[in-house]
Sequence to fold (262 residues):
Amino acid sequence: MLNPKHRFEYEHLIEPDPDSTSSGFFIFFNRPGVDFFMDWRSKPIMVISQNSPIMKLLLALPLMVLLIVLIYFVDAEFWSHKGPRYQSRYRLTTNEKAKIVEHAVIIRNFLHGKDFNNNYCFLIDMSIPSGKKRFFVYDLRKDTVLGSGLVAHGHCNHGFSFKPAFSNRPGSCCTALGKYSVGFHYQGTFGSAYKLSGLDSSNRNAFERNIVLHSYGCVPESETYPIPICNSSGCPMVSQVFLKHLQPIIDHAGKPIILWIY
Fold:
């Protein structure tokens, strides 16, 4: 039963037509924690609080509809794309292209006199949204991008991170910027993986942090932009299909390939 004060408030807020024989349905949420049925003047009235599961579902419905609409348009754009799936359906901006070439030139100079593969390098541009392909396989001999794929960034212990934050600290679960040497292949928790060694002060803890190049099922083969993809625990995590493209390049390289996250 309502106490007299609350009953007075409800009677003035929910005043049905006394001549009407139809029942009424009301949503009332000025009283957090109240979620019950009451019978007043033989009129069934439902009062739903802000904290009730029904109200939470009603509030979540617009977000669910928006997500369905976004997925529809992403799928429509995907199926209309005619190019090979190994390439991006989005054109790189002039700035993104310039950064790829700039980093390739720096790597080419870096390789002089060092025991690394000088035919290929891997470039990851973290300024590009995760729903777009931002992992580039670059041919240093022909000065061209051979292919690209999606790659996840670290969640930084935030549950989910839309934009990457960067840290070299052990336990941060963040992506660390800098050049890496792609090391030996092994079968890890997520299947095929390659150990990574940090070559710069910004990522020198990579081996200690168990940062590796690996695939995981939550990373799709196809682009999802504007919807972001999943996060990793700091590793450059790719799709299973894309890793299969990378494996022959890495396995037949003869010497370690440079991977640069910038």
Observations:
- The longest strand covers residues 178-188.
